[in-house]
Write a structure and sequence with these properties.
about 65% helix; mainly alpha; elongated; 3 strands
């Protein structure tokens, strides 16, 4: 069943396009040190400068002079070129050019390098938060949907309470009162505020599968509850779990960018959200520096589109009414 679902997923054009976009950004994140021409956190760069004194390593070039009459080598002259490492600073607030594809910030950091390295943090936060949210929601949904009773009542109570509270203001309040800044606190904040909706959706599917004939047969045969949950119920809701994962990941990327843009994260970490934060603080929008705020916005939209396309594809695959024959 899993193999058939994966084949249908690859054959779907929306899923294939979304997967290509995700693979592209994943490759950028993995090979960031090779792609980025500069260090994203500094405005200094080391260059090799030719000097006249014999400092450091030297390169010797043999220059030969040939007598035109005898066609014999008269003498060989050794010319020594000496190089010295010199630290220079990048230009401040430079416009896009061949040396800096997206220009530089007011502090002199290369924006293209920041975009490349920022892919790592943004994509990591999105994927880790999506996994954490899906795991938490799935665990609660399986427990509440299958066991029912007091377990279902308690989990449903907490789910309904969190659903009433708007997630964005809750994230802002929690992030504002947490003194520790970094990637892990943002993942925890996003995960702990995003689990109610997928929990409710997955719980309803568990309750539906619980009343199916094949689950009743397994229960009458004396199978253990854990075996029924993981062998009979869970494999039949993989598509819904994957759809929940894509939705949670997309929401996490948007949430991370929002928190960083508001300055509630660690602004010293290079991510697409912090690039937007410094662009706002530096007045890039007012000065018309589109190369500062537009690229991270486009990349966030593209990665969100990627997960949205894969989510739509999962919906088409799992719903027979939407599946194309």
């Amino acid at each position: 069943m899993l193999k058939d679902t994966f084949s249908l997923f690859i054959e779907n054009r929306k899923a294939l396009l979304g997967l290509i976009i995700l693979i592209f950004f994943s490759g950028v994140a993995i090979f960031a040190p090779i792609i980025a021409p500069y260090d994203p956190k500094t405005n200094k760069v080391d260059v090799m400068k030719i000097v006249n004194e014999e400092i450091g390593r030297t390169t010797t070039i043999e220059r030969e002079q040939i007598d035109e009459l005898t066609e014999r080598r008269v003498y060989t002259q050794s010319i020594t070129t000496t190089y010295e490492k010199v630290t220079t600073k990048l230009p401040l607030n430079a416009k896009p050019s061949n040396q800096h594809l997206l220009g530089t910030t007011k502090a002199g950091q290369d924006l293209f390098s920041q975009m490349v390295y920022g892919t790592r943090i943004t994509l990591t936060v999105g994927l880790v938060t999506g996994l954490f949210t899906t795991f938490l929601a799935l665990s609660l949904a399986l427990a509440a949907g299958y066991f029912g009773g007091i377990v279902d009542d308690v989990i449903s109570l907490f789910t309904n309470v969190f659903l009433v509270i708007p997630s964005l203001p809750l994230m802002i309040v929690i992030a504002a009162y947490i003194t520790v800044k970094g990637v892990i606190p943002i993942v925890l904040i996003l995960g702990l505020t995003s689990w109610p909706w997928p929990t409710r959706i997955l719980r309803s599917q568990v309750v539906s599968l619980k009343n199916r004939d094949f689950v009743k047969v397994a229960r009458n045969l004396g199978e253990r509850p854990l075996y029924i949950v993981f062998k009979e119920i869970l494999p039949n809701m993989i598509s819904l779990v994957m759809a929940s994962f894509f939705s949670s990941t997309m929401a996490a990327i948007m949430g991370e960018a929002t928190l960083e843009f508001l300055g509630l994260g660690n602004v010293s970490v290079v991510s697409w959200g912090t690039i937007l934060y410094w662009a706002q603080n530096s007045g890039a929008l007012l000065s018309g520096a589109w190369w500062w705020f537009l690229p991270p916005g486009i990349c966030i939209a593209l990665i969100g589109t990627s997960f949205a396309l894969m989510n739509f594809a999962i919906d088409e695959i799992s719903n027979p009414k939407l599946r194309k024959r």
